[in-house]
Fold:
Amino acid sequence: MTSTKANPVVVGITGASGAVMARATVDELLRRDIPTVALCSNAGRLVWQEEMDENFNETLIEWQEHPSFVHYPINELRAPVASGTYPAAGMVIVPASMNSVASLAGGLSGNLLLRSADVCLKERRPLVLVPRETPLHSIHLENMLTLSRMGAVVIPPEPAFYLKPQGIGDVVDFVVARIFMALGLDQTMPDEMQYQGPEA
Ligand SMILES: Cc1cc2nc3c(=O)[nH]c(=O)nc-3n(C[C@H](O)[C@H](O)[C@H](O)COP(=O)(O)O)c2cc1C
Structure:
């Protein structure tokens, strides 16, 4: 059996700094009418409250107006995304806390977000992590190495300084473009985000 509809992308939002990157990722998926499933940890909600001008429930209400958007509560382990039979195109965790990175690297899946990411690993589906912490200690680094070796793509949200970003918006757009490439949704970076070499 085949379906003409794109398979859903799962967006996991955890309690690291950088809620604005999650917002921009979901906004862009919905702008493209790509079916999108959002999962947010309890700490993710706390950080959202700190960093955004609205709380997560207010953002959810806005996203839920889009027919391609679905949200499941973090403890709803009976949600379809908890199963390998769910036809996810892939998953991004943005931002990814060191706590969730450590859980995943250790094979722990005690909430729906972690379970969904663990399913991506076991089913060999694209899993993209946007870890945010600084500085990083050895366990952080080892956990990311473990996940990278398992096939996850690790995208630290670092500016492309050579593009001379004019502000946080430019940095966020660059990270989102990287996420879309890593998920296989885009084949190239937008022209304005490609290094052009020295000016003639
Ligand atoms: C305002 C705020 C900012 C935080 N920033 C980070 C961060 O950048 N990276 C990180 O790993 N944890 C950060 N934390 C700590 C995590 O939220 C905490 O470890 C939490 O247990 C993560 O849970 P989760 O993985 O279920 O989202 C932050 C917490 C708060 C309240």
Observations:
- The helical segments are 19-31, 42-51, 56-63, 98-105, 112-122, 138-149, 168-182.
- The chain has a mean pLDDT of 96.
- The chain has one domain: 9-193.
